[in-house]
Structure formats: C-alpha cells, structure tokens
C-alpha cells in the first residue's frame, strides 16, 4: 500500500507528524506491505535565505509580533516536539528557503533513501541549527544518508529535480492541500496535520482494508495541527 507524505522542511509539525506516524506504523500489522513516498511542499516559496537572524526574529518581523511572543509560540511547539522525543532549538534555526532541500530529497528518493534524507534535514534544521539551503551542508547530509558527494554537488549546482519539486506542489494543489504535513494512504484516506498516533494507526487499518480489496475513491480527511501556506502554524 502506498503512502504519500507532503511536507516542508521548515514545518515544525511535519517532524512531529513524522514521529507519530512512525510510532503508528511500528504497531501496524502489515507495515512490511507499506511503501512510503515523501512529496515536496513549500510553505513560503518566496522566502529569502538569511543566516543573520533566527527563525524567532523572522517570525516576529514577518507577523508583526514581539520577539517574546514569537519565542512563546515556538516554545509551545518545542514542548510538543519533546513529547515525541525531538529536540527543537528555534533560537539556532536558520531562516532558509527549502527548494534546494526538496531537490536534495528527490535525489535521495532515486536511491530509496527519501525517508532517511527527510530525517537528516529535519534534524539539521530544528535541532542542529544548520542552513538547509547551503550546498556544502546538503552534501554533508547526503553523505550521512549514503549519497555520493560528487553527484549531490552536481545536482545542487544545476536545476536537476526542480521540475519534480514543482510537480509535487502541483499535485498538492490538485488535491486541495493547503497545509502540511499531509498523509495520503492508498489514494483514498488522508490525515492532515500531526495527529495523535492512534489516529494514524486507525487510518492505516482502514486504508489497508480497502487496499486489500483493491478499492479506491475520494479522500476522507482527518484534520489536525499543521502549517498553512500563509505561514501560520
């Protein structure tokens, strides 16, 4: 059964959703029959990479908030992340456009390493304060994932996989996806947001029941915490 996950590296709920989904999948009876495909989504395609400010300062400036208020909101998300074993360091997070990171994940997908690449990117962005728009950083993440450094550099210094990124975003638009994470199971069931583990598990069970009968129709969406295209989380 195929599961497609639309996500953006800079979405804090996407990493949390990944962990909750993984927990559900580990308890799923037919997990060995599941194929996962990560899909690209950009919350803010026009975002300019700026290593001089933190994500807290960027949000404060972009939203017209005080810096303290931005930190307060991100602190709440940090607490949520900690509940699933993740460490978020928003004070260190680098404001970075995610387009090159998405091209990087498509390269990783070519070698069956899409999930590993997503994990490396999330950790780099939210935990380690790395610039996920920097080519050398992405090459190092690629090496940690098992990708060839020379090929990664060639890809990132070209336009390779740009079309695939745009196509993923187009597919999201056709499905009416406005926020991420967004999980589509067997082209029929969908979970929107970083839902509770049991919601993912229940949806997996329902989707697999239909998959086993070779039935598929429109999406049944379960809503949850997500980041919207206007930048609200």
UniProtKB/TrEMBL annotation:
Instruction: Give the superkingdom in one word.
Output: Bacteria
Report whether Isomerase shows up as a keyword of the record.
Answer: yes
* Gene Ontology molecular function terms on file: isomerase activity
**What are the record keywords, sorted?**
Isomerase
Residue ranges annotated for the DSBA-like thioredoxin domain, each copy included: 3-204
- Name-wise, this protein is DsbA family dithiol-disulfide isomerase
């Amino acid at each position: 059964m195929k599961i497609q996950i639309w996500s953006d590296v800079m979405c804090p709920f996407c990493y949390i959703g990944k962990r909750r989904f993984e927990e559900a999948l580990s308890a799923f009876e037919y997990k060995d029959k599941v194929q996962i495909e990560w899909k690209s989504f950009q919350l803010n395609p026009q975002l300019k990479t700026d290593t001089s400010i933190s994500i807290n300062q960027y949000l404060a400036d972009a939203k017209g908030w005080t810096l303290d208020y931005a930190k307060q909101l991100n602190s709440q998300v940090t607490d949520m992340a900690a509940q699933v074993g993740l460490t978020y360091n928003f004070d260190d997070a680098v404001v970075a456009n995610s387009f090159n990171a998405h091209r990087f994940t498509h390269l990783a997908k070519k070698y069956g390493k899409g999930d590993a690449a997503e994990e490396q990117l999330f950790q780099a962005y939210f935990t380690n304060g790395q610039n996920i728009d920097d080519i050398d950083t992405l090459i190092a993440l690629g090496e940690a994932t098992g990708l060839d450094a020379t090929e990664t550099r060639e890809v990132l210094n070209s336009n390779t996989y740009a079309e695939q990124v745009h196509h993923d975003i187009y597919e999201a638009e056709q499905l009416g996806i406005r926020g991420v994470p967004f999980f589509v199971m067997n082209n029929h069931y969908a979970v929107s947001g970083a839902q509770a583990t049991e919601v993912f598990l229940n949806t997996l069970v329902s989707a697999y029941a239909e998959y086993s009968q070779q039935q598929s129709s429109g999406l049944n969406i379960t809503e949850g915490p997500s980041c919207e295209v206007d930048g609200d989380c």
